[in-house]
Design a protein that fits this description.
Largest sheet: none
Helix content: over 70%
Shape: elongated
Order of helices and strands: HHH
Structural class: mainly alpha
Radius of gyration: 19 Å
Strand content: under 5%
Length: about 80
């Protein structure tokens, strides 16, 4: 459940940021040499790395939560 929530937030962030990145890329064209600003391979690589990092960031708390006894957690609430 925790990993799913992290991935939903990461996907929502990517859905917002990718159109913004594509829209501002034409302004950055003068700073880039021998690279197209809308390179699909670079964009897909960045998306894959960000989703992998979000997945790994969600695995640590998810693993901790899975190892807690439910009765102990409910008593502390």
């Amino acid at each position: 459940m925790i990993v799913r929530e992290v991935l939903v937030l990461a996907t929502a962030g990517l859905a917002i940021s990718i159109p913004i990145a594509l829209g501002t890329s034409r302004f950055l064209r003068s700073f880039l040499f021998q690279i197209r600003p809308n390179d699909p391979i670079a964009l897909a690589t960045a998306v894959a790395i960000l989703l992998a990092a979000a997945f790994l960031a969600g695995c640590v708390p998810g693993s901790r939560a899975a190892h807690i006894d439910p009765m102990t957690a409910l008593r502390h609430e």
